[in-house]
Write a structure and sequence with these properties.
The chain has nine helices and eight strands. The chain is an alpha/beta fold and about 270 residues long. The chain has a single domain, classed as Vaccinia Virus protein VP39 (Rossmann fold), CATH 3.40.50. The N terminus is likely disordered.
């Protein structure tokens, strides 16, 4: 969560529609960020009124990102990350976690949201040894993403592809599977796929999501863990496999094991 006490700007960047809620801004609101508007706050509050666990889930997915990147940069030795569907900067963004472990890490962020683009400069800070870049592209353009990323990343060396909470926006699941596999096919052997998505594992979650979709915002489809497992076909899963985000290699806690959340994640290696 952001601990930046700077008051939010009242200036709306060009191309931003503040009459309809937007998922990246709502997640920013749930995580305590400033880059959201009254329409997002209202939608976020309405969502949480139906499904109060959403705030804990949002935090759990963020913590998974940090643990997953830390594992890949530290234990595995990955030095390149392709983060597609970046969302709005908060704290412990991919480059911050990776370069804290390995200062020479290179990170390419990809998003197609005007507000994310407006804040991309916050994602481009890098250690002198490493590098960060930002690509304005849609998830449905895997070839464009891979081609543009090659300006920063070395495709002769392993790359970690990250799709964090974005595939639900592809309402056709066959299309989502195809996009994932096309991106993975463009990576060298020894690369990794890191992913999470919210899941259809709680009736109140489904109700809250439907209420959000009914606002006219871009819909997000909740899928079962069994469906999400198709994304990993042909890859070697890293233990503990496809699990609730809070249960993926949790950090030690004096309060005991964490409670599962309605978002599943996994990390897998391309052979």
């Amino acid at each position: 969560m952001s601990d930046d006490s700077t008051p939010p700007s009242t200036e709306v960047p060009s191309g931003i529609d503040t009459t309809v809620p937007q998922s990246a801004r709502i997640w920013n609101y749930w995580l305590g960020g400033k880059d959201n508007y009254p329409v997002d706050q209202q939608a976020g509050d309405a969502y949480a009124a139906v499904y109060p666990a959403i705030v804990d889930m949002a935090r759990a997915t963020r913590y998974f990102l940090a643990r997953g990147v830390r594992h890949l940069a530290g234990e595995v030795g990955i030095r390149q990350f392709l983060d597609v569907g970046t969302g709005l900067p908060t704290v412990d963004n991919t480059h911050e976690v990776a370069q804290r472990v390995a200062p020479d890490s290179r990170i390419v962020y990809v998003d197609h949201d005007p507000l994310v683009l407006a804040h991309a400069r916050a994602l481009l800070n890098s250690t002198p040894q490493g590098r960060t870049d930002y690509i304005d592209a849609d998830l449905r353009e895997p070839e464009k993403i891979l081609d543009a990323a090659s300006a920063t990343l070395d495709f002769d060396q392993p790359i970690a592809l990250m799709l964090m909470g974005i595939l639900g926006h592809l309402t056709d699941f066959d299309e989502a599977v195809t996009v994932v596999h096309r991106l993975i096919d463009g990576l060298p052997p020894g690369s990794y796929f890191m992913h999470y998505d919210s899941t259809a594992t709680d009736d109140s979650f489904l109700e809250a999501q439907q209420g959000y979709d009914d606002t006219g915002a871009i819909p997000y489809v909740l899928r079962t863990p069994e469906e999400l497992s198709r994304l990993y076909e042909g890859l070697e899963m890293v233990e503990p496999g496809l699990v609730s985000c809070s249960l993926w290699r949790p950090d030690p806690s004096p309060f005991g094991p964490p409670e599962p959340v309605d978002a599943y994640c996994g990390v897998a290696r391309k052979l």
